[in-house]
Write a structure and sequence with these properties.
Elements lengths: L2 H15 L4 H10 L2 H21 L11 H18 L2 H5 L4 H12 L15 H16 L1 H8 L5 H10 L2 H6 L4 H25 L4 H12 L17 H14 L3 H8 L10 H22 L5 H15 L14 H13 L12 H19 L8 E2 L2 E2 L2 H27 L4 H12 L20 H15 L3 H6 L2 H5 L13
Antiparallel strand pairs: 1-2
Helix pairs in contact: 1-3, 1-4, 2-3, 2-7, 4-6, 4-9, 6-7, 6-21, 7-12, 8-9, 8-11, 11-12, 11-13, 11-14, 13-16, 15-16, 15-17, 16-17, 18-19, 19-20, 20-21
Length: 489
């Protein structure tokens, strides 16, 4: 693996990422916050300079090997997360808090260490929302659109980051496919902002929530999340758009352009929406204690959809619900959204494939001579795909448990520790206990915050990417030169 090429490409992306500091910089200037204007000016300058130095004389249209493509994806998320923390450090957050908030934003997790929101201005909250919007659909997909000079390398970066389900559905031309997804993503964000303004939110609040809803991120400029607005109409609107954020953007593009007959013809969306509906009805009935009223359905649907799509908003403090209700929320957290969406976590399609595989094995026990290939979407699922699915599901479950054990062993209360592990590795955001929807992660130790920030990064990369880069074969073939290689890394 050629490190010069890896960090050269990361440097190019860092240079373009520096332009993202301009909107909050302008807002700080408009609002008369000179200190904040200086903070974002420093962040913009330092990010651009480091990116320019790293990418100096970077050659065009290089072919990257598989390990190099994975390394660019992993290090892009890591390094952008570090530089995105600069405004937070300058705003007097500790280094651990700044990195936690930054990685929570860029990975669209939505966990926060902030306790007193009144200390920060609109430019600060705009930057939090923007980091989630950049990370929601994937920063690599964005850079493939704006860096056409990457050529073949750009296509490799895009498919190294994209899930298999999304990659099969989009055009083989990476820029064309990424452009379609980002166009849809942007249009939906603007539509949501307009609708939220109609629902009586201020333009800034509407825009901030639109950015963090379509990214399935969940950062709100209000300390009480959506509960702080007491706006039922806005809650219904957000439920619909959170469902869209957790749905495949490729499927949405096909539906909205007339290339697909509808959402319910897609097996994964049907599975995903059915679970959301069933759990919502059960939760609403439990909340009401009898037949649920319309308000009970709204409250239940909001929390279920928010956590299932890894958005992390809250319209009530579900931390106060009884255990029978909270365990339902844990179930939907483990399901996640659809492949090719802004949602993180294991993804509904993987759970669906696991269920199909188990059902086939049960039939095989009764009829050992029967030949029943596993099918999905009218096609046979190869054994190597199922092996990858089981591996990823196992790694997520093992990661939740191992991280939870470490947190509890370090002194975190056990419900808080295990829910924080699930929330951060699955990029959901709030958990239970002090890390609940109306709380924060401020009470965690600095080491635990850094550990959870790393978990957000690993979870957003779907675990396997990071583990693959730790393989001995990668380390044995590390070198700094520009020489081309015919195989391997």
């Amino acid at each position: 693996m050629r490190l010069v090429l890896v960090f050269g490409l990361v440097g190019q992306q860092l240079r373009f990422f520096s332009l993202g500091f301009i909107p909050p910089l302008i807002l700080a200037l408009v609002d008369g916050h000179r200190d904040t204007f200086t903070h974002f000016s420093i962040a913009l300058t330092s990010t651009f300079v480091v990116g320019a130095i790293s990418s100096y004389r970077f050659p065009k249209s290089l072919v990257f090997h598989r390990a190099e493509a994975l390394a660019v994806v992993a290090f892009t998320w890591l390094i952008l997360g570090i530089f995105a923390a600069i405004p937070y450090v300058l705003a007097d957050l500790s280094l651990a808090d700044a990195l936690f908030e930054s990685f929570s934003g860029l990975t669209a997790t939505g966990a926060t260490v902030l306790t007193d929101f009144s200390r920060y201005n609109r430019a600060f909250f705009l930057w939090r929302a923007m980091t989630q919007w950049f990370g929601g659909l994937g920063v690599i997909a964005l850079f493939v659109v704006i860096l056409p000079r990457l050529g073949i390398a750009g296509r490799q970066m895009f498919f190294a980051e994209a899930s298999g389900a999304a990659g099969e559905a989009i055009s083989p031309q990476a820029r064309q496919g990424a452009r379609k997804l980002w166009l849809l993503y942007t249009v939906l964000t603007l539509v949501l902002a307009i609708v939220l303004m109609i629902c009586s939110m201020t333009p800034f609040e509407a825009f901030a929530h639109a950015l963090t809803t379509m990214s399935a991120g969940g950062f709100s400029p209000h300390s009480q999340s959506i509960a702080g607005y007491a706006n039922p109409a806005a809650e219904w609107v957000l439920i619909v758009f959170m469902l869209l954020a957790g749905s495949s953007f490729t499927l949405q593009w096909k539906v909205f352009t007339g290339r697909s007959p509808g959402f319910l013809t897609d097996g994964e969306f049907l599975f995903y929406s059915s679970i959301a509906l069933v759990v919502t009805l059960v939760a609403a009935a439990r909340l009401a204690g009898d037949l649920p009223a319309f308000a009970d359905l709204r409250v239940a649907a909001f929390q279920v959809v928010s956590l299932m799509t890894s958005t992390g908003y809250a319209s009530v403090d579900y931390n106060l619900w009884d255990d029978s209700l909270r365990v339902l929320l844990v179930v939907v957290m483990l399901v996640g959204g659809c492949a090719g969406s802004a949602a993180a976590g294991p993804k509904a399609v993987r759970l669906l494939l696991v269920i199909k595989h188990i059902a086939r094995e049960m039939t095989q026990v009764l009829h050992p001579r029967a030949v029943r290939p596993l099918r999905y979407g009218g096609r046979i699922v190869p054994p190597e795909i199922m092996r990858a699915v089981f591996t990823l599901v196992f790694l997520y479950l093992f990661g939740y448990f191992a991280l939870g054990v470490v947190l509890v062993a370090s002194g975190v209360e056990w419900i808080t520790g295990f829910s924080a592990a699930l929330s951060c590795l699955a990029n959901i955001g709030p958990g239970f206990g002090v890390a609940g929807p109306m709380g924060s992660y401020a009470s965690f130790s600095d080491w635990n915050k850094l550990l959870l920030a790393a978990a957000m990064w690993i979870g957003r990369l779907e675990v396997v990417t990071v583990l693959a880069l730790l393989h001995p074969h990668v380390w044995r073939n590390l070198h700094l030169g520009w020489r081309q290689r015919t195989g391997g890394n």
